[in-house]
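Just curious. Protein, please.
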Amino acid sequence: MDQLFNKLKEKLSGFKTSIGNKIDEKDVPAKESEIPVVADGSNEKPVKKIGFAKKARSLVFEREVFLNEHDLEDPLWELEMALLESDLALSVAESIVESVKNELVGTSKKIGRNTGNIVEQALKNAIYNVMSANTFDFDDFIKNAQKPVNIIFIGINGTGKTTSIAKLSKRLKDMNYSVVIAAGDTFRAGAIDQIAIHAENIGIKLIKQPEGSDPAAVVYDAVQYAKGHGMDVVLSDTAGRMHTNVNLMTQLQKICRVTPPDLLIFVDEAVAGNDAVERASLFNGIVPIDGSILTKTDADAKGGSAISIAYITGKPILFLGMGQGYDDLQKFDPEWFVNQLFE
C-alpha cells in the first residue's frame, strides 16, 4: 500500500507548488512591524516580497490576490502534462484541467493559511466529480435487486478476472448471500479447472460443462439452477478476449442476449495504464458495461487508470483488487480515492 498512487500524488503536489510560486510573484504589503525606518526619520511603507511559506503561516494578510488565466497558464500546462504522465487519457486530463481553471480563475484568493487549501480543494473537486459520476452502491444493489442477480464478468486474458470472481464470491458469502459460479470460460485450456479450485476453496457451487461447450448455455444453466434452488447471486466467468476477435465478441453478445446480465463488469489491471483505458472503452462500445474492477491496484504507483476508465465509460469503478488473497478486494469509494491522492 505504501506505493499506492505515489506518482500521481507527486504530480498533484507539484501543481500546488507551481500555483504557490505564482502567488509568490505578486507583491504583498509588508506587516507594520516589518517596515524599516529610513535614515531621514521618515516612516515610509515600501512594498516587500514575502516567501510563500511565510504567507501560508501568516494570519495578518487581508489583501486578496486575483488569479487570472495568464497566472495559471504555465502551472495548468504542467498539470496537464503531469496527468498524462500518470496514465490519464488526454480527454480526461483536459477535463480536469478545465475544471481546476474554472474554479481558480476570476475569483479572489486571500493570501494566508488557506492558499494551499484552495488549490488542493480545486483539484479534489475536479477529480471527485469524475470519480463520483454515475456511481451506485454495489451492496445496496445486491440487497434490493430481484434474485437471483446475474453478474457477468468480461475482459481480456490474464487480468485477474477469474480471481476477482473468487474474491467477490467470498465477499458475498461472508455477507450471507448464497452464490453460484458459472464456469463460462470454456475456451481457454485449464480455465474450468482453475475456477473449480477457487469454488472448492471458498465452498461455492460451480456450474460447468465440458471444455469447448457453448458458454451461453453454461451461464443459462447456472441462472436456472439459482432460480430452482432459491439462490441469491450468479457470478459468470467468460473467456478473455480482445475486442478485435470478432467471433469471441459475437459470442459475448450472445451470452448477454440469452441470459441478460443484471450487472456486466469489466475487469482489467490498474498497472496496464492507458491500455486498460482503451480496452474498457472498446468493450463498453460493444457490450455496454455497468462498472469495472481494477486489479493489481496495490502495485499501481500512477493511479490514473481508475480516473480515466470512470470518465471514458461513464460507469463507476466498483472494486479494487489489492492483493492475492480472497479477502483482498476493496469496495471502491470515490472520496477515499481522492483523499489517497492528497494524504
